[in-house]
Amino acid sequence: MQMARKEQQLQKEMQNKENKTTNEERQANLSKSLPGSLQQSATGHRGNKIQEKLKEKTLPAPRSSKCLQIQFTPRVFPTALRESRVAEEEEWLQKQADARRAMNADIPELKDLKEGERNPEWLKEKGNKLFATGNYLAAINAYNLAIRLNNKIPALYLNRCACHLKLRNLHKTIEDSSKALELLVPPVPDNAKARLKAHVRRGTAFCELELYVEGLQDYEAALKIDPYNLDVKADAEKIRQRIQGSLQDYEAALKIDPYNLDVKADAEKIRQRIQGSEP
Fold first, then answer.
1. Interval 47-65: pLDDT, tens
2. Which of 92, 184, 207, 254 has the fewest CB atoms inside 10 Å of its own CB, making it the most exposed?
3. CA–CA separation, 245 vs 93, rounded Å?
4. How many helices, marked H, and strands, marked E, lie in the chain?
5. Which residues are within 8 A (CB) of 253 and not within 5 positions of it... i.e. 6 or more apart?
6. Could you count the other beta carbons within 10 Å of the beta carbon of residue 77?
7. Rounded to two decimals, what is the model's pTM?
């Protein structure tokens, strides 16, 4: 009896295996008989479903939208509170910002320049490079075009007056340095270096024209900006000695002709200017 039961169980297992094998062979034959595109779609469809399920599990939820508010840090000037001139310093910064926006693009010479070259700052840098090589006339041409584009930038006049001084165009040096000083207002620490250069260059031009009293006034103004500048202090002393020497010449002339009203008036003017320029 037991032997018979075992044989029946073995026969059932053999039949199950044969049925399973037969089903697998049928499915394989069926898939082989299908076109290639259908076979790929059948397998790809299953893969897509798996990928979609994985994405659903791994993708985070979308972030909620928010409005960001940007606040700029206010500029801090290196001035002691007891000497603070914040209002004037802010006015200077605003004037600089307005100057950068003031553009005059309606210039025929601009047609020969590229788009990036139609910029006063680019022309200023070009002029600086030409100045460094000693090509002062070409530098002046670059500054001229930059000023025609924007006549509110003091550095353009300040740099051009340096070129004129090198070429001994003394009257133009005085004009450009004076224009730079007009634009360098209000006087704040941020433009102190530029104001000092303008006074020294104008004072040098005055002295070259033998207008020593006017030159000394500019050097004294430069010393008020930077009292510890030894070079400016030494030059101012030389100019003062030159003025005193010319005064002595006038006084000697008056000893010869005490009634010469013109010489007497000139000597008095020099004496008053010397007293007015003393610190």
1. 566 666 655 566 667 777 7
2. 254
3. 44
4. 11, 0
5. 260, 263
6. 17
7. 0.61
